[in-house]
């Protein structure tokens, strides 16, 4: 059985306030050698956030339009494919 805490991350906003977020799923892009995490605030489950993360677990925003479009395609595939979205 999966531990619920393993599916959560803590995000610190610009004011230093911590927010507990639920991880929806992660994705690795082998050509970019980049990993992504898709997560949401349990109080606003319809607002999904995607960010890059590294081996140390540090998050960075996706700023490149082409990269963002690719990440958006992955998210759409996740939503549309019942074999993926479990």
Short account of what is shown:
The protein has 86 residues and is of the alpha+beta class. The chain has one helix at residues 65-80, and strands spanning 8-12, 18-29, 34-41, 44-53, 59-60.
Describe the structure.
The chain has 86 residues and is of the alpha+beta class. β1 (8-12) and β2 form a beta hairpin. It has one domain. The model has no long low-confidence stretch (mean pLDDT 87). 19% of the residues lie in helices and 43% in strands. Strands 1-2-3-4-5 form a five-stranded antiparallel beta sheet.
Question: How is the secondary structure organized here?
Answer:
Layout: E1 8-12, E2 18-29, E3 34-41, E4 44-53, E5 59-60, H1 65-80
Antiparallel strand pairs: 1-2, 2-3, 3-4, 4-5
- Based on CA atoms alone, the radius of gyration comes out at 13 Å
Order of helices and strands: EEEEEH
In helices, the fraction of residues equals 10-25%
Number of helices: 1
What is the number of independent domains? 1
What's the β-strand tally?
A: 5
Integer average pLDDT: 87
Which structural class should the secondary elements be placed in?
alpha+beta
Largest sheet: 5 strands, antiparallel
Low-confidence segments, ≥5 residues, pLDDT <50?
Answer: none
Q: Beta-sheet strand percentage?
A: 35-45%
């Amino acid at each position: 059985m999966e531990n619920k805490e393993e599916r959560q991350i803590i995000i610190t906003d610009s004011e230093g306030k911590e927010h507990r977020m639920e991880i929806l799923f992660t994705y690795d892009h082998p050509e970019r050698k980049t990993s992504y995490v898709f997560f949401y605030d349990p109080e606003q489950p319809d607002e999904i956030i995607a960010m890059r993360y590294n081996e140390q677990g540090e998050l960075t925003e996706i700023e490149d339009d082409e990269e963002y479009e690719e990440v958006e395609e992955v998210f759409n595939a996740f939503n549309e494919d019942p074999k993926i979205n479990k």
